[in-house]
């Protein structure tokens, strides 16, 4: 569910605060274990890159979660920001029915 009063947390923040820090896991180690480069992990953790389906599968397998968990975090984040950006435009659209 998309929060109404505040922006959703970026999945990179969840990755950092709920997984990397508690597990004392470095970005370098995570990248190596996932078979990707460290820059990709760093950009996600810095909220500069989105979670793709590929990354969702990798993170789900590694952390024993589901790809939907990661993709829903990203979807909620994206939808909240798009809604805030285009809210006035959306309000002008009238239903065909």
Describe this protein's structure.
The protein is mostly helical. It has helices spanning 11-20, 27-34, 38-45, 53-63, 67-92. It has one domain (11-92): Orthogonal Bundle (434 Repressor (Amino-terminal Domain)). It contains five helices and no strands. α2 crosses α3 (38-45) and α4 packs antiparallel against α5. It starts with 10 loop residues before the first helix and ends in a 5-residue tail after the last helix. The mean pLDDT is 94.
Uncertain residue ranges: none
Output mean pLDDT. 94
Could you say how many structural domains there are in total? 1
The CATH class turns out to be Mainly Alpha
How much beta, percentage-wise? under 5%
**Cα shape:** elongated
SSE string, helices as H and strands as E: HHHHH
Give the fraction of residues assigned to helices.
55-70%
- The CATH fourth-level homologous superfamily: lambda repressor-like DNA-binding domains
Largest sheet: none
The end-to-end span amounts to 26 Å
Taking all Cα atoms into account, the compactness measure Rg is 16 Å
Number of strands: 0
The CATH topology label is: 434 Repressor (Amino-terminal Domain)
The CATH architecture category equals Orthogonal Bundle
Number of helices: 5
Write the layout of secondary structure elements.
Elements lengths: L10 H10 L6 H8 L3 H8 L7 H11 L3 H26 L5
Helix pairs in contact: 2-3, 4-5
């Amino acid at each position: 569910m998309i929060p109404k009063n505040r922006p959703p947390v970026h999945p990179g923040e969840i990755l950092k605060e709920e997984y990397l820090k508690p597990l004392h896991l470095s970005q370098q180690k995570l990248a190596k274990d996932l078979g990707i480069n460290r820059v990709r992990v760093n950009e996600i953790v810095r909220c500069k890159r989105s979670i793709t389906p590929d990354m969702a599968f990798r993170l789900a397998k590694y952390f024993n979660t589901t790809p939907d968990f990661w993709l829903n975090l990203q979807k909620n984040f994206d939808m909240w920001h798009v809604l805030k950006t285009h809210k006035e435009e959306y309000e002008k659209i009238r239903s065909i029915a």
